[in-house]
Amino acid sequence: MNSIEAKIFQRGLWNKNVRLYLDRSFRDGKEWSYAVTEKFDETEHFDAIELNGFVKENSIKTIDLLKIDIEGSEFKIFSKDSDLAFLSITKSIAIEIHSESGEIIEIINLLKDNGFELRVSGEYYIGINKNFNTI
Fold it and tell me: CA 93 to CA 68: how far, in whole Å?
């Protein structure tokens, strides 16, 4: 309708390729507050892909906006041990960082170290990659 070329992928994003299981003990356990874990459980599960692998698999050259709101799992994607190569092709990012899952400053510092200038808007940190001349 808006001439946007979009695809839907039924996979999660993680710091590696893995099967993930729903953890309903996160927050109040209601449907809006699920978290995920690698720990085997006989509950619902889904496959997740490492973000750089997703970029490569889909021949993505530039990410205009990377929106991340994944109920604490952002700390897996943005860990000190993660490969953050995808940030070099990301123009802007909107990320909700859940403080109950880790130290917000760690993700903020990783983004800043990768060229992002950050602002806060509501629940989101909005980052513009200073390494791109235009957005």
Answer: 8
